[in-house]
Amino acid sequence: DIGNAGDSLGVEVFVVGGFVRDLMLERPIEDVDVVVEGDGITFARYFASMHHCRLHQHLKFNTAVIIFEDGFKVDVASARLEYYATPAALPVVENSSIKMDLARRDFTINTLAISLNTETFGTLIDYFGGGRDIKDKIIRIIHNLSFIEDPTRIFRAIKFSNRFGFRIGKVTANLIANALSVGAVKHLSGLRVLSELKQIFGEDNPLPALETMADYGLDKVIHHELKLTDATCALFESVGKTLAWHDLLYSDDVYPRWAVYFMAWLHGYTVKVSTQIADRLMFPLKERELLLEQRIKAEQSIRLIEKSYPVSNQQMYWWLIYFKTESLLFMLALTKNESVRKGISHFYTHQRKIQPLIGGKEIKSVGIKPGPVYSRILNKIIDEKLDGKLNTMEQEIEFAR
Ligand code: ATP
């Protein structure tokens, strides 16, 4: 249908980038990126009106997102000749705007396109050897200044290499080392580094990526005290197992996966170093709190729990209720004590959601004056419920009285 719309408007339309790469790798496909040789916004408007889709337009960037009824999205970008300074002497095909568009991308594996217009439907466009590199399982940049031009590509190279199990090409690896030696990442804004790290730590198994980062000395650029130890590697493996367990049993319970690995990465570093890292990475306030306060409290609490175990339901509850899902998962990964692990997962599964059925209104109805006593009553109700008592509202009201 996209190709037909292109035919009707007389423009060439291609599906590009990650979609084609993932198609060749037979991996699940998430987003579809389309490039129109012409005005992408006009194309997207036309397509959306024909197929009753919603549309988000970014006029400044000449891009749009077509949103289908079921939520499926297609990103549309414009590749227009006037964007590029092209030597007039080159033959037309060399001048084509799709080639220019693809040439701006990061790695050869991301430069593939497939034509969608009826006459050429399904034709693979491969100007930079991306097809061969996918077969050879190799990450290669397109031009030598790539990492200097945009140092976030260093992190992207590591992310893709880890995700697909590809190696980073020799020249590309040398160019990464070279970019690092001239301080390219040092000057990168914290927010951009953070965004890349979140993506790397959000992958299925980020440990090989962390090792590659350490090989290049990227961690040291973020903070000179960061050092990849065997303990960190073991903790990453433990996080992997914990998250696999969690996601299998509680697939509806969403949490930021990257955050658990991030806590594991910073485990053991002092508040001072952690704060400096959070500053360098320009952590937003909420995430900062998670990484500093929650992580450090989690480390302290797990030690306390390990020392005091076995403890009552109530003690465990009041120790753990403060923590977010990601911190609890971090604690589960952190402890080597099997009983403690069981205790925390019992809390997670059975106790975390326990709430009184009654509220202030009901407490007032039994004649108790509002005040701090209300929260004491509600907490006591939770204590009772943790032992399986007070199952109905009536029982709770009676207890409050
Ligand atoms: P993912 O599965 O991680 O989303 P993707 O390849 O779709 O992989 P995006 O980050 O969504 O990655 O980027 C879409 C496309 O834009 C990429 O295929 C790549 O060609 C291009 N791109 C993204 N970031 C850069 C960059 N920093 N430099 C050059 N090209 C980039």
Automatic annotation (TrEMBL):
Q: Which organism is it from?
A: Desulfobacter postgatei 2ac9
Q: What is this protein called?
A: tRNA nucleotidyltransferase/poly(A) polymerase
GO terms (molecular function) for this protein are: metal ion binding; nucleotide binding; nucleotidyltransferase activity; tRNA binding
Sorted keywords for this record are: CBS domain, Magnesium, Metal-binding, Nucleotide-binding, Nucleotidyltransferase, RNA-binding, Transferase, tRNA processing, tRNA-binding
* GO biological process entries: tRNA processing
Q: Which residues of the full protein are shown?
A: 481 to 881 of 890
What's the source species' lineage? Bacteria, Pseudomonadati, Thermodesulfobacteriota, Desulfobacteria, Desulfobacterales
| Similarity comment: family membership | Belongs to the tRNA nucleotidyltransferase/poly(A) polymerase family.
Q: Can you tell which superkingdom this protein's organism belongs to?
A: Bacteria
